[in-house]
What we know:
The chain is mostly helical and 302 residues long. It has 13 helices and no strands.
Amino acid sequence: MDRAMTARSDKIEPTTGVDDREPIAVSTRDQQRARHRIALEFGSREEFEDPQFAYRRMFSELLGTFMLVLAAAGGGLLHGKGQISLSAAVVAPGLTVMAIVLFMGAVSGAHLNPVVSIAFALRGDFAWKRVPAYIVAQLVGAALAALFLLAVFGNVEHLGATLPGPGYRAWQALVLEIALTAGLVSVILGTASQAQNVGSVGALGVGAYIALAGLWAAPVSGTSMNPARSFGPALVSGDWTSYWVYVAGPLIGAILAVACAAILRGRGGDPAARVAASGRLGSMLRERRSELRASSDPRSAG
């Protein structure tokens, strides 16, 4: 029996595969390609801060907000005409935001919302002096989207403006907008890379939240969560009914979200936030642990 066990144990050989703790050689070309792909998705912090590229950031915010309001207000307009379902109308802006974050978040941060820019500034991740220009670009983009809808459909269904739903009062819409915006901005602050909505994590989180909030809350307030989204249709259609709800509600909600973020994660401006949002924090920690093990290994001394 001992002989059988010995023979069996002799057949068990350790695998000669690559140890996952061993560094894998990567060519210079592959490293450059990886850096390029990361830069496309997460951008360069230097370019994001560089005044020379301010025109890119302003155009990005204008174009992104135009696309968002086109989907949100256009979906509301067509739903009001009975041509699409409420589910389609509220999911469309969520998917649009997801796409915007992925393809231009690295340029301007894809704020697309005045209260998001204000929230980033309150967290200390975004300079206050840059907030007015962002808000102007967002409002212009929203107005252009509403003008586009007016040219295509005419002044019908309030051009998809956000209004309290039938049977609901303005204060009810206000309270709901506060709660919804607090949730939205919390998701943004938790997934953003400092003042930039970038990467697949942020895109999925923010886009999914917008869609899910609309699926259950749209009949009450229209789920604006964005003063710019409500501004465009109100300006072009001339219907300012309850517009104050969609300014006060999102602003209060954003302030509450900043307070919650301070409790959950401390003050803003953390440099590690950029790495965490990009999904590379785990690999960075593993590399750091490997360095610490190597430095503490007595065989590596001398």
